Amino acid sequence: MIRVLSVASEVFPLVKTGGLADVAGALPLALARLGVETRTLLPAYPTLAETLGAGTELARIDDLFGGPARLVAAAVDGLDILLLDAPHLFDRPGGPYVGPNGYDYPDNWARFAALGRAGALIGQGLLPDWRPDVLHAHDWQAALAPVYLAFGEGERPRTILTIHNLAFQGAFPQSIFAELGLPERAWSIEGLEYYGSVGFLKGGLHAADAITTVSPNYASEILQVENGMGLDGLLRGRADALTGIVNGIDTDIWDPNADPHITANYTTSDLFRRQINKRALEAEFGLAESEEPILAVVSRLTWQKGLDVLAESCDDILAMGCRLVVVGSGDRMLEGSFLSAAARHAGRMGVRIGYDELLSHRVQAGADALLVPSRFEPCGLTQLYALRYGCLPVVSRVGGLADTVIDANFAAQAAGVATGVIFAPVTAAALREGIGRLLRLYADPALWRELQITAMRSEVGWSASARRYKDLYSSLLQDSAP
């Protein structure tokens, strides 16, 4: 059996700010079905105590960036969790990264260096009766784990670093380097030095034995200057170690036939029941009852997601014969723009500012189409939920969106494989053209139902991707065998 230590800053259902949590929560369950044992190292945020209880203490660390820490074993929903209980770093109000004032915690460098350091110590044998064969780090918050192991001594597990979004790199002033407890040689181009700053993700990309991204297309995109976020040269140099493995979703949680959070359950055999969810969504967002399609957004409201393009196009899109539902938060100007548009179009557009996991289920079950006009998208999960629920995605041709949605062009329709609409580039004109194509599909009820059924039958779970991760773990262990 392969033993894996997954190191992540958020894990669903315990703490979530984005898709990283969904992956860190679902992948271990899929791997367990393949005989891979995973334990997940997660900071002990104060909100977790009520869910996980006291747990079982496994080990202590006398001094971890300014205070003592404990490793505590707990379990939830089939996940084996190792909590890094370091109150001086994690017991505070606010979110995982941002305080109540809306700004990043100034000591985030120490908080997530501690996470990486604890992961490395477990990899070196800190726990008395369990040692991982592979350490799998997720994003910059865990990226120092492979660095500490690479610059450490003695036996160590093989290491993988998964890039969920290259735009978030964990760059900090050079002055913190002396506090990290790494040897001087780690301050180098082959280590943490990144244009005069300390680069957590950059260091992890150098140190890890293997690198993965969350879709094959994104793995190709980040090798290009325009998409590499300053790390394209490093990644091209490590291209042989780079693999794109598309994300999946938990198809037990996201199942329209059994979802307890939607008004009416349904399958491909009784799609007419989906209309009940549409009526419920109209009521929830104050939309007038109509057969016009409801287009939905469930997203962070940011430039990356292309939602400035949608915001400037709201009036035109609604005039095309659509209705619009927006759920999310982020850029205050974008929030205001969508709220203003909803006020202008009362009864045709509804907006909910904030993140609501259960509402996202109801939106996917009741809306006719999901808009994802991202400028870049490593994988994206909302379009996978949409496919599962027969809510046809309208997406830009980037990253994992292009890997997971099949455009409903003539050839794809004829072959019976079309699942949505893909448009490019990310401009208001191209978005409107994509929505126009969607409306022409919607106008043919038989074709629309066929597209919905094909979408709902898409392989969006973790089975295939989990096998690829297991194969990657196995290949790394074979490479390290004497």
Please describe what this structure looks like.
It contains 19 helices and 18 strands. With 482 residues, the protein is an alpha/beta fold. It folds into two domains: 2-248 and 463-480, Rossmann fold; 268-456, Glycogen Phosphorylase B (Rossmann fold, 3-Layer(aba) Sandwich), CATH 3.40.50.2000. The strands form three sheets. The chain has a nine-stranded mixed β-sheet, sandwiched between helices. Strands 15-14-13-16-17-18 form a six-stranded parallel β-sheet, with helices on both faces. A three-stranded antiparallel β-sheet has the order 8-10-9. Helix 11 (307-319) links the parallel strand 13 (294-298) and strand 14. Helix 4 (108-123) crosses helix 6 and helix 10 (274-285) packs across helix 13. The radius of gyration is 23 Å and the shape is globular.
Structural descriptors:
Rossmann fold, nine-stranded mixed β-sheet, alpha/beta, six-stranded parallel β-sheet, 19 helices, 38% helix, 2 domains, 482 residues, single chain
Q: How would you summarize the topology of this molecule?
A:
Blueprint: E1 2-7, H1 19-32, E2 36-43, H2 49-52, E3 56-61, E4 69-76, E5 79-85, H3 87-90, H4 108-123, E6 134-138, H5 139-142, H6 144-150, E7 158-163, E8 171-172, E9 193-194, E10 197-199, H7 200-207, E11 210-213, H8 216-221, H9 232-237, E12 242-244, H10 274-285, E13 294-298, H11 307-319, E14 323-328, H12 332-344, E15 349-353, H13 357-366, E16 369-372, H14 382-389, E17 392-396, H15 399-404, H16 410-415, E18 421-423, H17 428-442, H18 445-456, H19 463-480
Parallel strand pairs: 1-2, 1-6, 2-5, 6-7, 7-11, 11-12, 13-14, 13-16, 14-15, 16-17, 17-18
Antiparallel strand pairs: 3-4, 4-5, 8-10, 9-10
Helix pairs in contact: 4-6, 6-7, 10-13, 11-12, 11-17
